[in-house]
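$ run holo --ligand "manganese (II) ion" --emit tokens
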Amino acid sequence: MAEQKISNDLIASENDRLLAAHESDYEALGAHVARRSIDIGAVTKEVARFFVAVPSWGVGTGGTRFARFPGNGEPRGIFDKLDDCAVVQQLTRATPTVSLHIPWDKADPAELKAHADALGLGFDAMNSNTFSDAPGQTNSYKYGSLSHVDAATRAQAVEHNIECIEIGKAIGSKALTVWIGDGSNFPGQTNFAQSFERYLAAMQDVYKALPDDWRIFSEHKMYEPAFYSTVVQDWGTNYLIAQTLGPKAFCLVDLGHHAPNTNIEMIVSRLIQFKKLGGFHFNDSKYGDDDLDAGSIDPYRLFLVFNELVDADHRGVTDFHPAHMIDQSHNVTDPIESLISSANEIRRAYAQALLVDREALAGYQDDNDALMASDTLKRAYRTDVEPILAEARLLAGGAIDPIAAYRHSGYRQFVSDKRPASTAGSGGIV
Ligand code: LRH
Ligand code: MN
Ligand code: MN
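-- output --
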């Protein structure tokens, strides 16, 4: 039995308070979707089987490059972070795994595994960091890492990625996500072709160290920290990487890593079609890589992404297991609340996508009936699926209203009493 950070009695009494209203809402929604020939129980089951990994770096208060305003009870290190991740999982039952970032989360792998096991948590993809310098490291990444002009710096970056694989092997991870900040700030500063050649050669060295049952995800991002050119800047380059490396290499789509108005759902569709979609970093954004909470700015876009995933399933696409991970920075909220809410928003988008009448949609597409095709998507999107989400949580031992349960639990106060106040930082992403 996993160690419970929130008392089960608290969750039970919270659920008791809300149960009658929830049951009535679930029944009403069941009758509503039954008129569309949808079995609410089947949808609930699907939703309950959908999980998304929490980023270890998401449970601490984030910051901008201007400032960081920490909250109370900030996690002191990876073990506190795992405790906080367990709270998100306990209440949502949607986040059984954590994605680690090395060296931020570096610790004895046996201790990491034991702590996670005790909490009933597992590990999703490992994330390497060659976009900042670790204390004491020999070569700096100021001018790049896997694509650096200097062979020794590239070798150091390769070694770091291999070390991430080694740690991952010891804790039960099965994937490595590689995002580099390499690029340039001035036209002429770097040679586009040669940088990419060096990057591919270095990634091939990392790829060689990948166990047979592992996948490697390359993550593209249009800009930042480099502001003129970025080596892995878009999904086209990313697709070339995955193709060049081999069958264990896939593309990771971070929703915040595109130009505003980019049709991300279409990128998702293309990568599925050509068998190279590896997974997601979910978040939301308005201007750039804002790392806002999933579904907080454009929930319809999130729905359209899930519509592509469900469509692929419906079309019988095989060998398709995208990794679902959150990648957010929580600057003004309690990070645990943001993660609870984001996990629910992600499941909401999935549930709505499951409600799309795919036969009707295909018919409207064949008839070139643009209005009704669009309306078919909207009809699913407009459905308030909250009772389905709540039922999935309830059946798995979670909370009908996880944010309310979290607030009533006093967890933040409890950890604030134990964890010393964290000092405000001058910036940075963690
Ligand atoms: C880069 C990124 C990448 C990093 C994370 C901290 O913007 O999305 O995934 O690992 O942020
Ligand atoms: Mn990311
Ligand atoms: Mn990002």
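-- notes --
Residues 371 and 429 are 43 Å apart (CA to CA).
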